[in-house]
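Tip: read the tokens left to right.
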């Protein structure tokens, strides 16, 4: 059964209505080779509390003690209609004085870096595709910030690919902020109970869905975050979601990111690889969305300039890690059965993004630009009732890798 992305909004509503239902509750994702996260905060995620806290905060902020809406109650959402389309984004979406007090030079520096990365990555992917080019939409917000979405569709190689840049000023409930951070640490220290937390966020995110089942989907996101009082951190990562297992591809992808990580800290790759393995779990399936890469969040354990250099190196490693894999397989022959399997794996991709992905949930709950948020979804996906791969098949081989984390380098 195939679905368009529009149909999937019904799926999202059903999931929201069934909050608290978790068929996979209590089931642990297992690994065949242990990897240490010693020295790093636990990557265990509180995804459902994050969703519930945002909803509770919305309800709490809309009523006063008498159960009536307060005329001066702050809106939780930044506003679905607060995005104003513009022909061209300003030279910078970061304005000194906007948002909470903080590291204004780093905000501008990070935005400049990801703008350059957006252009270089989309140029490289357009060249690989050879047919379609990225179309850009730009928008701004009256309260500061805005963004640029670059989307390619109906290409020779890529069915859909998008690279989104956003700069956001806003405020959020303390409960949402605590649940949104990886460690659940106190990012609202010193604030009164119930007081909203002003924040600044700047990030670049991307998803690419190739046509050929032998070409993997790729995702990355790199972001810089500040809250009131000078609290800051970096987050992000790059990961791969193949439909079929090619160990040479995995060694190349993970090897590229290991080399990049080692240039900054030899402990980064094993920590962030294990973090990705745990973050991208589809809990109700007890399997991962793909075969990982690196993932990190709440990173502020050294000087900001050091972590900026790491984030810049990571985003600039996207094309060297991914491009050669697509070039190697974009013309591989494939069968209709292999295409159907790719569609089923895309269904898993949709399930993770709409149910668990922190960025998607946060964007939907805080009034983000809907076209940019749902850009990550494939144009079509497939669900088959109780489908089980044939034992010994290539589909069964990669399913095993989705259930048991492996070391690739």
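Filled-in amino acids:
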């Amino acid at each position: 059964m195939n679905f368009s992305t529009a149909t999937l909004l019904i799926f999202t509503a059903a999931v929201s209505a069934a909050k608290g239902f978790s068929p996979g509750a209590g089931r642990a994702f297992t690994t065949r080779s242990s990897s240490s996260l010693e020295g790093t905060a636990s990557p265990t995620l509180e995804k459902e509390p994050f969703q519930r806290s945002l909803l509770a905060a919305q309800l709490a902020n809309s009523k006063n003690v008498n159960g009536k809406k307060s005329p001066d109650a702050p809106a939780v959402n930044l506003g679905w209609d607060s995005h104003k389309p513009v022909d061209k984004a300003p030279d910078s979406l970061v304005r000194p004085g906007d948002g909470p007090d903080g590291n204004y030079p780093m905000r501008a520096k990070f935005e400049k870096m990801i703008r350059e990365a957006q252009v270089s990555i989309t140029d490289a992917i357009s060249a690989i595709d050879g047919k379609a080019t990225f179309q850009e939409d730009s928008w701004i917000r009256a309260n500061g910030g805005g963004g640029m979405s670059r989307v390619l569709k109906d290409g020779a190689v890529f069915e859909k690919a998008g690279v989104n840049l956003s700069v956001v000023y806003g405020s959020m409930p303390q409960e949402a902020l605590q649940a949104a951070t990886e460690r659940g640490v106190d990012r609202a220290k010193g604030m009164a109970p119930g007081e909203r937390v002003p924040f600044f966020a700047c990030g670049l995110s991307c998803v690419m869905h190739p046509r050929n089942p032998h070409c993997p989907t790729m995702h990355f996101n790199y972001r810089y975050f500040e809250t009131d009082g000078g609290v800051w951190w970096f987050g992000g990562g790059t990961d791969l979601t193949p439909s079929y297992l090619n160990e040479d591809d995995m060694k190349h992808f993970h090897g590229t990111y290991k080399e990049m990580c080692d240039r900054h800290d030899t402990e980064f790759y094993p920590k962030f690889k294990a973090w990705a393995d745990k973050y991208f779990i589809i809990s109700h399936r007890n399997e991962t969305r793909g075969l990982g890469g690196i993932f990190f969040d709440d990173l502020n354990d050294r000087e900001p300039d050091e972590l900026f250099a790491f984030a810049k190196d990571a985003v600039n490693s996207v094309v060297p890690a991914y491009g050669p894999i697509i070039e190697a397989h974009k013309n591989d022959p494939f069968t209709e059965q292999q295409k159907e399997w790719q569609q089923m794996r895309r269904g898993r991709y949709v399930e993770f993004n709409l149910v668990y992905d922190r960025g998607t949930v946060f964007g939907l709950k805080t009034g983000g630009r809907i076209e940019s948020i749902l850009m990550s979804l494939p144009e079509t996906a497939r669900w088959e009732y109780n489908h089980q791969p044939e034992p010994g098949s290539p589909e069964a081989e990669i399913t095993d890798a989705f259930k048991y984390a492996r070391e690739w380098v």
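The longest helix spans residues 104-129. The mean pLDDT is 82.
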